[in-house]
Every structure is written in structure tokens, then in C-alpha cells.
Amino acid sequence: MADTHEIQIENAQCQIHKWNSEEVFLFLINLTCRLGLALFDIIFKYSNVILLCIVLLAVVYVLYKSYWSPVILIRELTHTGFDHIPYVKGRDRVLHIARSQRNRQVGERVPPPYPNGWFALAESRDLTVGKVIPVDALGQNFCLYRGEDGVARIVDAYCPHLGANLGVEGSVKGNCIECPFHHWRFGENGACTYIPDVKNIPKGISIKKWDCMEVDGAVWVWYDAEGRSPMWTVPPLPELSQWGYRGRNEFLISAHTRDIPENAADAAHLNCIHQLSFMTNIGKHLPFLNNIIGHHIWETDWTKTDESHIAQMSIDQNYMVLKCNAFPFDLRVKQIGPAHVRLHFNCIFGEAYVIQSVTPVGPMLQKVVHRIYSPTYNAIFGAILVLAEAYQFERDVVVWNNKTHVSSPPYVKADKSIRAFRDWFSQFYSEKSVSMRDAMQNPLDW
Ligand code: FES
Ligand SMILES: [Fe+2]
């Protein structure tokens, strides 16, 4: 019996074999190699199917982004134009950029920061029925809301009772806005219509209501330093109600508000900073590649129109690859007032509209948004345009974020439109336009 027991113990010891770490390592290597070879074998065997699947997925993704999910590109202030500041990680980089901005000279005889005209405060699609949005712009605090009748309205943000911000936690009741603090309500014309437990509302309690216009996919406020009513409105574009919204790109820019539209009248800069391909900056460092990748040649013409608040520009663009004009398009631009631009693209892929709005968030801080619309048949072109246009626009942003204001430039022949543009733009200032110095409140901020 004892012998049998010993034999059993010996067998059990043989069966329980403990692997040392070297054996585990070798086993894993072996397993990985076998799996890798098996995978490689499958890929090789079904390479056509796999390639087809990848292409199909890419096509589905592009179609989805083009037709059902607008392309949204948002660039914060620190994103563009600060590559010259040595790279430091995280918060320190923001501090370095803030320091370089503080050291920047704004310039002399800078025009007022807030011209008179219409300014976009929000996208229509973001202001759904019953929604309330606070917006700070033009040295004001606004509250936007959409009543149950579907009409967008703009009022001052601060409640006349004890100063709560209606845009933060305020709510829509019918077509009124209700304050979040003590539930006072303000109606159509800004007058107070309801105070809890008060039967007779005292007269004269009201909130400032701003003139509001909804067109080109945005909600616009009329700002006028003299307090005048709107001097013009903008009729809707029929195309925008028939075409699809392909997306938007959005930039926060440290610049004077006039710098942005002045770009359209600056013909000479087009063949300088916008000559490189809309796809890549590589030609900047390797100029010989510009002929292979392609580069832009621009011709422009900026003029006033019969309507004093509208200027127009026509642009012919040729995209040259090895001396062939691979992608010509023409662009018709309408500048409506100080902060609203309609750009109409026409090329072999069809038409598209880019709607630009410039909103002065602060005296030297602009929010620029481009919303792109195109017909159904060329939705892919519209979606690509959101990115391509942003790529070209970023080249301007680099300059704007670092430039100073020159009030009397040494104009040369190519700058004649800039002089005409500045003259045209001056109509949007008036006697009470707040000066740059006052708008900045603290002169030390310069
Ligand atoms: S602060 Fe608005 S109701 Fe009191
Ligand atoms: Fe430009």
C-alpha cells in the first residue's frame, strides 16, 4: 500500500509542472508570432475584401458628414498664430501667449471698436424654441431667447429688479422671459408683465429690448451708438432655404473688428499669404513643390454699390498644377454693413454660399464664423469647403493675432482699394461711437 501511495504522489508531482518566467516569455512570443502569422495570412488571403470594406467605410463616413452631420471646426484664440512662441506645456503656454499679447502695441488713432450695424449673436439652430442664451458682445450683456411663437428676441441680460442675469437659468414662459431670481416676467416690448403675488404691476418697470433680425442662419442684433432704429435690414437668400447646411468654422481672433472685412479690399495679400495650396503649407518650406501640389493665383476687384451699406468684390481664382489650371472658381462677395458677408462660390463642383459674421466680443477680440450651405448634389463639396476655407482663413488669423494698427499706411498702387474700403467703413461710426480707449476701460490693459 505504501508503495502505491508513493507512486501516486510522484505522478501528481509530474502532472503539476510549474512554468518559470523564461518559459512563459517564450510561450507568449510563440503565441504572438503564430497569431501574427495567422492574421497576416487572413489579410493576404482577403486583402481585396478588406480594402473594399475600408473604402466603403470611408465613403459612408464622408457621406454621413456631408449630408447628416455638419462639419464643425472651432479654433480658440491660442490655437493659431503663436508658433513663434517657444513651446511650453499646458497653462504656462497660455501665460506666455497672454504676455506676448500684453506687449503688443495696439497702434495709434485706432478706430472705435464697435461700429453701428447688425451683428450675429448666435446661430439660429442653437436657439431652439424655449431656449435662453447669454451672449457678451459689443460691450453689452445680452440675453437671447425664442418664444413659443418661434420668434427670436434679444433683451438686456440684467434684470431691473435685483440684477440677476436672465440669460443664466432664466426661462421662457409663452413669449416672455422669466427671471431666475424672483420669477418676474418681461414681455414682447420688454415691459414687466408678471410679479409673483403682486396684482397691479407698477408702471415703468421694463427691460431694454434690442432690435433683432434672423437671417442667413443667425440671430442678429442692431447696435447703434446713437440709439437709432435699424437703417437697413437684410432680405433672406432664397438659396439658403433650399440648400443644406454643411457646417461651420469658428475662430476667436485678437484683432480690431475692421481688420477682418478690410482683408477683402486688400488685393495684394491674396497672392502673398493665400498663394499656397488650400491643402498644405509644405510649399512654404519647399517652394519647388508648389508647382506639383498646386498653388493659387488670384485676381480681385473691390467696389462700392448703390446701396451705401453694401460693398462688393469679385474674385477669380485659378489653381495651377504644373502650369495647368486644375481648379478654377469664381467668387462673388457682398459685404453688408460692418459685420456680415455673403460669399458665393461657383466652380466645376457647383455652387455654395459661405456666410461670414464678425462679432466683437471685446474691443480687440472678434468671433468670426463661416456657415457653409450648398445644394444636395454637391454636399461633399460643401463639407470640404468648411475645412478648406478655414485652412486659408487661418493664414490671415496668424497675421491678425500679432499685428498693430497703422492709421495712415504708405499706400502703393495695389492698396488703392484699402483706402477706399476705410473711407466706406467710416460710415458705420458716429459721434457717440465709444472710443477704443474707453472701451478698454483700463488703459493699462493696452
Ligand atoms: S432679480 Fe430678477 S426678479 Fe428679482
Ligand atoms: Fe486673407
TrEMBL record:
Keyword Lipid biosynthesis found: no
Catalytic activity as recorded in UniProt: cholesterol + NADH + O2 + H(+) = 7-dehydrocholesterol + NAD(+) + 2 H2O; cholesterol + NADPH + O2 + H(+) = 7-dehydrocholesterol + NADP(+) + 2 H2O
SUPFAM superfamilies per record: Bet v1-like (SSF55961), ISP domain (SSF50022)
Pfam families referenced in this protein's UniProt entry, alphabetically: KshA_C (PF19298), Rieske (PF00355)
Chief subcellular location: membrane
E.C. number: 1.14.19.21
Cofactors named for this entry: Fe cation
Assigned keywords, A-Z: 2Fe-2S, Iron, Iron-sulfur, Membrane, Metal-binding, Oxidoreductase, Transmembrane, Transmembrane helix
Keyword Cell membrane belongs to the record: no
MF term (GO), any: cholesterol 7-desaturase [NAD(P)H] activity
Transmembrane spans: 49-68
A single cellular component GO annotation: cytoplasm
Pathway connected to this protein: Hormone biosynthesis; Steroid hormone biosynthesis; dafachronic acid biosynthesis
GO biological process, one term: cholesterol metabolic process
Family: Belongs to the cholesterol 7-desaturase family.
Entry protein name: cholesterol 7-desaturase
